[in-house]
């Protein structure tokens, strides 16, 4: 009957990747240098991502995993055929900005880059796979980092809109699902990765961050408007790194801390889905002696161009503690957390919490009443190839099974509207946080080690089946 909730027939099941973590081919097709190319393997990766160490060009003392990644650039036909064999209905990928505009500020796009993605999208459609395209997944041309300081400059909006206009026109009829900025809240934790910004000495870091955030939020709204104008079929989503914060105890201070921590996630999507900065965000910014750099028309732009759906990544729940030391005991996806004694963790220490997935889904749906799209969920783990070539990744199967069950409950029992679900790293790829390939997420194994050695051959894991 009317109240019986179920997965939609056209539910978009599939997998997700990002250009810099997957493509490689970084010197091919006249591609330019991007911020994420300069993220090294090893301890310094975190320092560069947070801007504590500045990397403007390659340094021979480091290894840069994005340069070859898993070579999707040359393997895409084979990879998409494997996705089709698994029954994918959608494939999430991102556009490498510097394939289209190598420096970011050119007037004419690079045809080779445009042709590459056109071929990829056509290959998807051959199998009835609908592309889901992230316009910006941790990706900023280094030329724009060097010349205008990345997203701290309002000029970025113009360059980004120019990119999006080219993409929307060129891929009309091939792509209709788009995400603006991947994990837009990551900017608070990984500012160089998320926005190409490095802090200057003695500057108010919050001011620099909020300036960049505001520019991205205005860009996101303008891109939403443009997408709808160019093609009425286009559907645009925002994307946030989600995962509810639980209070560590029922102590009121812990609960209050959890509210505050959750708001550091919501304050981005609140603007994108509701069309204005909530009061608590304005106060949060004020308290840190910063201001939102509104231009005259910005409030109208934000108000009139909210997203069609809300997408998010979910790996773990998080735990808030009013005791700062405890609050930083653990980490998942760059978000610090207190330890949750009720949960097991992954080999990288990320808490595994399928029920937390259901809670997170419900909280986002209650808040926005817009369709949700789960665009990342998965388990990073070490895999072993047995002598006969098989890979028994029952831990990954279990993680995904439990999370899918939880999502099913959110749909069938709670009545949440979900458009689709893409697992992170449907094929092994470079880890954003650590730069390793050994932190494997895929159903498809790629024969490549952390230092880029290997045949890059693809193998099916048990989870593939
Ligand atoms: C999200 C990102 O942060 O989580 C991905 O959108 C990332 O780019 C994924 O790869 C998993 O994190 P990690 O650090 O294990 O790669």
UniProtKB/TrEMBL annotation:
This is Arb protein. One of its GO terms (cellular component) is cytosol. It holds the Pfam family Glyco_hydro_1. Keywords: Glycosidase, Hydrolase. Belongs to the glycosyl hydrolase 1 family. The keyword Nucleotidyltransferase does not apply. One of its GO terms (biological process) is carbohydrate catabolic process. GO terms for molecular function: beta-glucosidase activity. InterPro entries: GH (IPR017853), GH_1_N_CS (IPR033132), Glyco_hydro_1 (IPR001360), Glyco_hydro_1_AS (IPR018120). The active site is at residue 376. The keyword Ubl conjugation does not apply. Gene3D superfamilies: Glycosidases.
């Amino acid at each position: 009957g009317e109240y019986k909730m179920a997965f939609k027939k056209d539910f978009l099941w599939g997998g997700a990747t990002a250009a810099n973590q997957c493509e490689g081919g970084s010197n091919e097709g006249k591609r330019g240098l991007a911020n994420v190319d300069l993220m090294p393997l090893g301890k310094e990766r975190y320092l560069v991502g947070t801007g504590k160490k500045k990397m403007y060009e390659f340094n021979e003392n480091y290894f840069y995993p994005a340069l070859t990644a898993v070579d999707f650039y040359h393997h895409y036909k084979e990879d998409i055929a494997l996705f089709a064999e698994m029954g994918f209905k959608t494939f999430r990928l991102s556009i490498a900005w510097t394939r289209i505009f190598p420096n970011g500020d050119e007037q004419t796009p690079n045809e080779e880059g445009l042709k590459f993605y056109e071929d990829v999208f056509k290959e998807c459609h051959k199998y009835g796979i609908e592309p889901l395209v992230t316009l910006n997944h941790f990706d900023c041309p280094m030329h724009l980092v060097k010349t205008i300081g990345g997203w701290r400059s309002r000029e970025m909006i113009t360059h980004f809109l120019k990119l999006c206009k080219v993409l929307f026109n060129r891929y009309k009829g091939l792509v209709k699902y788009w995400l603006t900025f991947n994990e837009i809240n990551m900017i608070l934790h990984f500012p160089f990765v998320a926005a190409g910004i490095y802090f200057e000495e003695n500057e108010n870091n919050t001011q620099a961050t909020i300036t960049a955030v505001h520019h991205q939020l205005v860009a996101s709204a303008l891109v939403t408007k443009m997408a709808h104008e160019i093609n009425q079929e286009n559907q645009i989503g925002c994307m946030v790194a989600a995962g509810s914060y639980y209070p560590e105890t029922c102590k009121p201070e812990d609960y209050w801390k959890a509210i505050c921590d959750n708001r550091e996630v919501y304050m981005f999507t609140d603007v994108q889905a509701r069309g204005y900065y909530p009061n608590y965000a304005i106060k949060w910014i004020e308290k840190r002696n910063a201001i939102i750099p509104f231009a005259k028309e910005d409030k109208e732009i934000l108000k009139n161009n909210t997203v069609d759906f809300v997408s998010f990544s979910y790996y773990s729940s998080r735990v808030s503690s009013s005791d700062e030391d405890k609050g930083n005991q653990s980490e998942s996806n760059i978000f610090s957390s207190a330890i949750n004694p009720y949960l097991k963790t992954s080999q990288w220490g990320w808490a595994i919490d399928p029920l937390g997935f259901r809670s997170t889904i419900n909280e986002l749906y209650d808040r926005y009443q817009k369709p949700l799209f789960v665009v990342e969920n998965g388990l990073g783990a070490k895999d072993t190839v047995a002598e006969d070539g098989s890979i028994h990744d029952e831990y990954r199967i279990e993680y995904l099974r439990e999370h899918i069950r939880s999502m099913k409950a959110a749909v069938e029992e709670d009545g949440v509207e979900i458009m689709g679900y893409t697992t992170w790293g449907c094929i092994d790829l470079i880890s954003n946080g650590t730069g390793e390939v050994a932190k494997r997420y895929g159903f498809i194994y790629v024969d490549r080690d952390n230092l880029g050695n290997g045949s890059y051959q693809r193998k099916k894991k048990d989870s593939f089946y």
